[in-house]
Design goal:
heterodimer, A: mainly alpha, 12 helices, about 80% helix, B: alpha/beta, Rossmann fold, 7 helices, 9 strands, about 25% helix, about 25% strand
């Protein structure tokens, strides 16, 4: 089927909109994560959210809501324990990471019957995005965009040198906590697209591709949004044509984009 | 005239219950130029963090007669991630932050001031470079520019002479000497010899602090102060005769 013909389908229009919204959000948040070397922390938050998915199934509430609660708790806990140096930072992450997964597995097992769409939480399913999902994505994209536009310089400078920002009177702790909550919510909504196992790629591959061509924080954000969106749409179309899973195809496209970027840089 | 800027009184401080500084008192006055020396792990950086208000002392008081935002700060450059996507111009601009709302302020309105400061430390041509493309000396210049752009009344420098070439070191001291006409300086250094012609007093920090109100210090005095650092003598041209102390 021809690409534009797909817009006749509601599921495709939703998927296309989700791809656009999450490319914007992941472009911004991913740049923050990559610049601050928070990829591993984000991995911990991502996997911890599976605990919420499991409890969601067990209690009969939307698993994505459970995931959001778990992700935010994991994010705040990791941030807090890291600040207080209770444990080594990477150990804290490993513990939240595996504890969340363990809780999820136990509750999915305890849920009578079977857990519908479990695979879509693990591997993503952009073609099943609903109107409700889109409304959350619009709200998050608006919040993240406005927050970064309003505090762009503050966020950039405190990410570079937190201690110095503190001496200049920036409420560093408050900003760190707000930002980690936005990271957690972005991860949860991105799970709809790429799933828990693949979601980190949406927050890191476009950034590293953009970083091949620019060293500006703002430049990486814009570049990541464009690369993320193009890859999502191409991946979505290819997955439809070849009848293969959409999340994995999008990730594959992102990697192809990255390698093409390296090739262009090598040749140029 | 009361020209006191900051007074530390019987400050004990450290991290997670572990004491690094004990019973430390220090007064910083207008136009002071204090050289802080001491062994690694002796508490030099902790002293700076207390002064800057970055950590709260376990006991004792820190009294500010100037606003904390009137302190310019140059941290040790080894702490920076050189892959962080930020330009020299942006780093220097961050010195003008004055609170959460200043993050909204237009970057462009500060351009003239940023370029003037970059000129004064000799790296205007590098303003659009990202920090990963700088040499150690260039990064130190950038950090110095960031520390002084807000026209502070006290400048706090943590090892500004590490990773720098001799040319910059000489320039740095000339800049500091000039700045000292209008502001006070507190400089942490592992190498007191080359800076001693410029400083006015010395603070030896090794868990406790001994204040020495002159820029000449003998080996004997360092022993009394329990400050095992390398001793350096200096003449017209800074020349070092280094002798390691036993603990």
């Amino acid at each position: 089927m021809e690409f534009f013909g797909l817009f006749e389908y509601g599921f495709f229009r939703n998927a296309f909109s989700a791809a656009f919204l999450m490319s914007v959000t992941c472009g911004i948040i991913g740049t923050y994560i990559v610049a601050r070397r928070m990829v591993f922390i984000s991995g911990g938050i991502t996997h911890a959210s599976f605990g919420g998915v499991g409890i969601g199934y067990f209690l009969g509430v939307p698993p994505i809501a459970g995931a959001a609660v778990f992700a935010v708790i994991a994010a705040l806990t990791t941030e807090n324990l890291t600040r207080r140096k209770v444990l080594r930072n990477d150990s804290i992450i490993a513990i939240t990471w595996s504890l969340g997964m363990a809780i999820g597995i136990i509750f999915v097992y305890l849920t009578p019957g079977y857990a519908p769409n479990l695979m879509s939480f693990l591997f993503g399913s952009i073609i099943t995005v609903t109107l409700a999902d889109l409304i959350f994505m619009i709200a998050l994209t608006a919040t993240v965009s406005l927050f970064f536009m309003a505090f762009y310089r503050t966020i950039l400078y405190l990410s570079f040198d937190e201690q110095f920002a503190k001496t200049r009177g920036i409420p560093v702790m408050l900003m760190n906590y707000l930002l980690i909550v936005l990271v957690a919510l972005t991860i949860v909504l991105s799970i709809r697209i790429a799933g828990i196992i693949l979601v980190l790629s949406l927050l890191t591959i476009p950034q590293n591709t953009a970083n091949l061509f620019t060293n500006r924080f703002g430049g990486i954000i814009i570049g990541s949004i464009i690369i993320g969106f193009l890859s999502s749409v191409i991946g979505l179309y290819v997955s439809y044509v070849l009848n293969i899973p959409s999340g994995a195809t999008i990730i594959f496209t992102l990697v192809v984009m990255y390698l093409s970027g390296r090739l262009i840089k090598f040749v140029a | 005239m009361n020209n006191l800027q900051i007074e530390l009184k019987q400050v004990t401080a450290g991290y997670q219950g572990h004491t690094v500084l004990e019973d430390v008192s220090l007064s910083i006055r207008h136009q002071d130029f204090i050289g802080v020396i001491g062994p690694n792990g002796g508490g030099k950086t902790t002293l700076l963090r207390v002064l800057l208000g970055l950590i709260k002392p376990f006991s004792g008081t820190v009294h500010y007669h100037i606003s904390r935002k009137e302190i310019g700060y140059l941290p040790q450059i080894s702490q920076f991630d050189d892959q962080f996507p930020i330009t020299v111009h942006e780093v220097v601009h961050s010195g003008l932050l004055t609170g959460i709302r200043s993050g909204v302020l237009k970057h462009r309105s500060c351009n003239a001031r940023i370029e003037e400061i970059l000129d004064s430390v000799g790296i205007r041509a590098l303003q659009n470079r990202s920090i990963g493309e700088l040499s150690g000396g260039e990064l130190q210049r950038t950090m110095l520019a960031r520390a002084i752009i807000s026209s502070p009344r006290l400048l706090v420098l943590d090892e500004p002479n590490t990773y720098v070439d001799n040319k910059f070191e000489i320039e740095l001291y000339a800049i500091l000497k000039e700045l000292n006409k209008t502001l006070s300086i507190l400089l942490v250094s592992h190498d007191i010899g080359t800076i001693s012609p410029y400083i006015k007093s010395i603070a030896c920090v090794n868990r406790r602090l001994h204040y020495h109100p002159s820029n000449e210090i003998s080996e004997e005095q360092l022993k009394v102060y329990n400050c095992p650092i390398e001793i350096i003598s200096h003449g017209q041209i800074p020349h070092r005769i280094i002798k390691e102390h036993q603990q």
